[in-house]
Design goal:
The complex is a heterodimer of chains A (502) and B (497).
Chain A lengths: L8 H7 E12 L38 H13 L3 E2 L6 E4 L9 E4 L6 E9 L5 E13 L3 E5 L11 E5 L6 E7 L9 H19 L11 E11 L9 E6 L2 H20 L7 E5 L6 E6 L9 E2 L10 H9 L5 H12 L3 H9 L3 H9 L4 H19 L10 H12 L5 H12 L5 H8 L7 H14 L1 H8 L6 H11 L6 H11 L5
Parallel strand pairs in A: 11-12
Antiparallel strand pairs in A: 1-9, 1-10, 2-5, 3-4, 3-14, 5-6, 6-9, 7-8, 10-11, 12-13
Helix pairs in contact in A: 1-4, 3-4, 8-9, 8-10, 10-11, 11-12, 13-15, 13-16, 15-16
Chain B lengths: L1 H5 L2 H10 L4 H19 L2 E4 L1 H16 L11 E5 L26 H8 L3 E6 L33 H8 L5 E5 L6 H7 L2 E4 L20 E5 L2 H11 L17 H6 L7 E5 L9 H16 L3 E5 L7 H16 L20 H12 L2 H14 L5 H24 L2 E5 L15 H6 L5 H6 L2 E9 L6 E8 L4 H19 L11
Parallel strand pairs in B: 2-3, 2-4, 7-8, 7-9
Antiparallel strand pairs in B: 1-3, 4-6, 5-6, 5-10, 9-11, 10-11
Classes of the chains: A alpha+beta (502), B alpha/beta (497).
Chain lengths: 502, 497
């Protein structure tokens, strides 16, 4: 059956209890690939970062990237997992042209890290514990580009182009245990988990975890069971959901879709589904008629990985403060609400604001610029906040110029605009654009005299005690100085010259 | 040049070093020999005349400049077509790699070049090293120089035939279940399977990763040792390569002795299926070692009876995965790409056309053995048997220094005799397989001719892992005693081609 009619979210939750499983793939930020010495830099010419090993040429052999293993152990420790004393890689066998060996070197029943948890904080501050089944090491595949089809998928394509630059880039796959008990908050929990995991990965310094670049990808597995029952329902697997918002939407959509199917007496088919960003829906992918048989077996070309306990403890000692703990500390330091902190997190601004404060700005000003003017610009340009061409140091300099009176807010905005346009650092922009507040008393005095002369009637009113009329003269001076004067000082000067007490 | 081609590698190297011969002369003599006899023998798939002569000239120039030459500088070698050679075709005996020119050298190829060994060309082999007769080559069979209607062993029949027909004094083989030792046995030459991890597998096209091992082949024990020393050693590109010094094999080969050694004879390496003349020569060899001062110890290794079954689950399982990469997408044969077929269809048509029957049989066996629901019963059980075999060896080596056996139960059989009977073919490796499963080192060397057919019989010597030097110590003593008894090397009795 095709389902286009969804049950309302409230009705779905009244009848059913959602159970989720989240599988997240993280591309590690190692300099070289997992099993060879090729570069992992993004954006290179197709197939320029390949060698016999990552092309799977006959005779080639893999060698494990030690930094990849170290990153996996760090992630495992940060997720409160047990680190295996001994584990092996395994071959996952299946044919696909973008996989050079037609098997993926992965881990099967001996993951490097297992049995952990991650506490995530929901918007209202509630902590929800997500249990982690395992985190294991594997390699990424190459990338296929299908030419000639309408959908960009292989179906209907005339031919396909293969780029193996990505083949062999280290991946860590992190799998949760079934997430139960989230109820109506399941989509929120899913989003918060992925957000928290992303922060954690970034804090560990093992990956930039940029979802829009595919460095972090999420599969959302979801099933429903009638309220009050224990047995899990049949699940769907929505693949490659690649933004935080999409994770939430995909979970929500699948809850409503499953409920619609189940309520009308249908059964859920175990299948993979594609998520559509445009309307938030999912559509059927490949039906798993028979469970795919990957014929896993231990990788005979690699020796077992046996992280010594001493080394694991050394790594544990180097773990940074957990992002959630750090956020709560910063929230108190900055004196803001949980809701504001959540907005800052969602905007990806925590590190930027912290760095701006570290560069000398007060936290209120730092937040004001990053969450105001800069967030607006990032949104307009459709880029991440961190991708804007302005540094926390530059933002700190602008706040300093404002607080010493060199710039007012309007001029500060123009300065930011100049920096973003590539005109140089804040001081250069101020200089080149001539944005400095006019504080030269002589020049300002002349402007005030001219304004009084040109508006004699108003000047008389002021002299007569109507101090409120000074606003009109202030406006005239500001106009004459193209907004570069300090309005408060202008007012003072006007009143002074007219012999009136302000 | 008849004399020149019969020289040992050690003699050739010495004459080049002394200036008595030039490397170019030596290479030209062997190229001429190949020209003269290989049409009949078919040991080579590809002759690299230009490359060989260039390498030889470089050696002569080095010599002229007064530079010190390595122990095998200028000596010609026949390389099994399973090692990648940059710019030179590498087919692994398969149609699926026809026309593939590797962009890189195997570590072993690099080591040979660095040692100034002259690579004459690439030798014939059973497709992907699967076979015991070289009849599974997609490029036609190789003849045994003792009798061209007989098989030269396999999978490395091209290398063993090249040695036995004096086309090269040195050759490289690979041994997954006996592919160095069984060809050596049936051609009256010497071959060593080093300890697993002793010689790098980087650039050696994989059949069964946990069993495959490259190794040296020659006509004498000393030559084999000299080549062993050149190709062995740790390679950071092969994670399973042993990071330890190479055992002192050349020193051992120069100081052959079995005096005071405990030599084990395993009762499982005997019985039904063993040719009478083979057992007769084997028993004589044991008696000889006793005469030379060895203590003979009877051993019982019950798990060895399960080796064949375990091997034919593990090797096909690994091969089913290793050979998956031959999908027509990146290199080699491509069939059916007419613009109307899917990638999946092109892969299927290419594999159908490019793989031979034995390769397909093993891919199917392995795919089945690894499949969900059967893994524990097949692959899992086979790994347990492997552990038992390793333990049997460990227990045996508590009592003895080396183990000896016939290398293969029969002498060379006629080409065509076993092609339709895989089980009969597989039995040729019954004595050699346990060694690969345990990762030990082993040698085959000639121990006489079987009286009933006048064909060579091989003696297998097995040593514990990392004790490869023992093979050479024992082998050199046995070789010296037999040569003295026969009055000449066994190969002198082979008919001239």
């Amino acid at each position: 059956m095709t389902v286009t009619d969804l049950v309302s979210y409230e009705d779905a939750l009244a009848a059913y209890d959602p159970v989720m499983g989240l599988e997240v793939h993280v591309e590690l930020g190692t300099k070289t690939k997992m099993f060879c010495g090729c570069s992992t830099t993004l954006g290179a010419d197709a197939n320029s970062q390949t060698c016999p090993t990552c092309l799977g040429l006959p005779g080639s052999l893999p060698v494990v990237n030690a930094t990849g293993v170290e990153s996996a152990v760090k992630i495992g420790l940060a997720l409160n997992c047990t680190i295996a004393e001994w584990c092996r890689f395994a071959r996952k066998n299946y044919f696909y042209p973008d996989m050079p060996k037609n098997f993926q070197t992965s881990q099967y029943d001996e993951p490097i890290a297992f049995d952990g948890y991650l506490d995530v904080q929901l918007e209202d501050g509630e902590i929800f514990r997500v249990n982690i089944e395992r985190a294991h090491m594997e390699e990424d595949t190459g990338k296929s580009t299908h030419i000639g089809g309408a959908t960009g998928r292989i179906h209907g394509a005339r031919h396909s182009l293969l780029d193996y630059n990505r083949a062999g880039i280290p991946l860590i796959e992190i799998v949760t245990k079934p997430i139960e008990g989230a109820g109506e908050r399941a989509p929120e929990v899913a989003k918060a988990y992925v957000a928290e995991l992303r922060e954690l990965i970034k804090a560990l310094g093992v990956s930039e975890a940029r979802m829009e670049q595919g460095q972090m990808r999420c599969d959302v597995n979801l099933s429903l069971r009638p309220q009050g029952t224990e047995k899990f329902g049949t699940r769907s697997e929505t693949k490659n959901v690649n933004s935080l918002r999409s994770v939430e939407r995909a979970a929500r959509y699948e809850i409503q879709r499953h409920a619609a199917v189940l309520s009308s007496g249908g059964t859920i088919i175990q299948e993979t589904r594609h998520f559509h960003e445009d309307d938030g829906s999912t559509t059927s992918g490949r039906v798993k008629e028979e469970a795919e048989d990957y014929r896993y077996f231990p990788e005979p070309d690699l020796v077992p990985v046996a992280p010594s306990r001493e080394w694991v403890e050394e790594l544990r000692a180097t773990l940074p403060e957990l992002p959630r703990v750090r956020r709560n500390r910063l929230r108190e330091e900055w004196g803001i609400s949980a809701h504001d902190m959540q907005s800052i997190l969602n905007a990806g601004a925590v590190d930027l604001i912290t760095a701006t404060v570290d560069a000398g700005a007060d936290s209120a000003s730092a937040r004001k610029w990053w969450m105001g003017e800069l967030a607006r610009r990032a949104n307009e340009d459709g880029v991440e906040l961190a991708a804007l061409p302005i540094t926390p140091g530059q933002v700190a300099r602008i706040t300093a110029l404002v607080s010493d009176g060199s710039l007012n807010d309007k001029l500060a905005r123009q300065t930011i605009e100049g920096v973003l346009a590539g005109e140089g650092d804040p001081d250069t922009v101020v200089e080149k654009r001539g944005l400095k507040v006019v504080s030269d008393e002589g020049a300002l005095g002349t402007a005030v005299d001219e304004a009084i002369a040109a508006n004699a009637a108003i000047a008389d009113k002021i002299r007569g005690g109507k101090v409120a009329a000074a606003g009109a003269l202030v406006g005239a001076v500001m106009k004459a100085t193209r907004g570069q004067a300090d309005a408060a000082r202008v007012r003072e000067l006007i009143l002074e010259k007219l012999g009136v007490e302000g | 040049m008849a004399d020149l081609i019969k020289l040992t590698a050690a003699e050739i190297a010495a004459k080049i070093a002394s200036g008595e011969l030039t490397a170019v002369e030596v290479t030209e003599a062997h190229l001429a020999r190949i020209e003269a006899v290989d049409e009949k023998v078919h040991a080579f798939l590809h002759i690299d005349r230009e490359g060989a002569l260039a390498q030889a000239r470089a050696v002569d120039e080095k010599k002229a400049r007064g530079e010190k030459l390595g122990p095998l500088a200028g000596v010609p070698l026949a390389l099994k077509d399973i090692f990648t050679t940059e710019g030179i075709p590498t087919t692994v005996g398969s149609k699926i790699l026809e026309g593939w020119i590797p962009p890189y050298d195997a570590t072993l190829t690099k080591k040979l070049k660095a040692a100034d060994v002259v690579i004459l060309g690439k030798t014939n082999m059973d497709e992907f090293a699967m076979g015991s007769s070289t009849e599974n080559s997609a490029y036609g069979p190789t003849g045994n120089p003792w009798d061209l209607t007989k098989i030269p062993g396999g999978s490395g029949g091209g290398s063993s035939a090249a040695l036995a027909s004096y086309q090269a004094p040195l050759a490289i083989g690979t041994d997954t279940g006996g592919s160095i030792r069984q060809p050596a046995a049936v051609t009256g030459t010497v071959g060593v399977k080093p300890t697993y991890g002793g010689v790098s597998r980087y650039g050696m096209v994989a059949f069964s990763s946990s069993l495959d091992q490259g190794g040296p082949c020659a006509r004498t024990v000393l030559d084999t040792a000299l080549l062993h020393e050149v190709i062995a050693g740790h390679d950071p590109l092969d994670s399973t390569s042993i990071d330890a010094p190479v055992p002192a094999v050349v020193e051992a080969a120069r100081n052959g002795s079995v005096q005071g050694m405990r030599v084990g004879v395993v009762k499982q390496f005997r019985g039904e299926g063993y040719q009478e003349g083979v057992l007769q020569r084997f028993d004589e060899s044991v008696a000889l070692m006793k005469e030379l001062g060895a203590e003979i110890v009877e051993l019982d290794c019950p798990s060895f009876d399960l080796a064949l079954a375990a091997y034919y689950l593990i090797a096909p399982s690994e091969c089913s995965s290793n050979l998956a990469r031959f999908d027509a997408m990146r290199y080699g044969l491509r069939v059916g790409d007419d613009g109307t077929k899917s990638a999946e269809d092109v892969t299927a048509l290419t594999r159908e056309a490019g793989f031979g029957a034995e390769v397909k049989r093993r891919i199917m066996l392995g795919t089945y053995a690894l499949s969900s629901g059967y893994y524990d019963a097949y692959y899992g059980s086979a790994q347990k048997v492997r552990t038992l075999i390793t333990r049997d060896f460990e227990k045996a080596f508590e009592q003895v220094d080396v183990i000896v056996s016939p290398t293969t139960p029969t002498t060379a059989f006629p080409i065509g005799e076993r092609v339709d009977d895989p089980m009969a073919m597989y039995l040729a490796d019954v004595c050699t397989l346990p060694v690969n499963l345990a990762g030990n080192a082993a040698m085959s060397l000639p121990c006489g001719l079987a009286p009933e057919d006048g064909l060579p019989v091989g003696l297998q010597i097995i040593a514990p892992a990392m004790a490869d030097d023992r093979l050479y110590k024992v082998g050199a003593a046995v070789e010296a005693a037999f040569t003295e008894r026969w009055g000449h090397p066994l190969l002198e009795e082979a008919p001239s081609l």
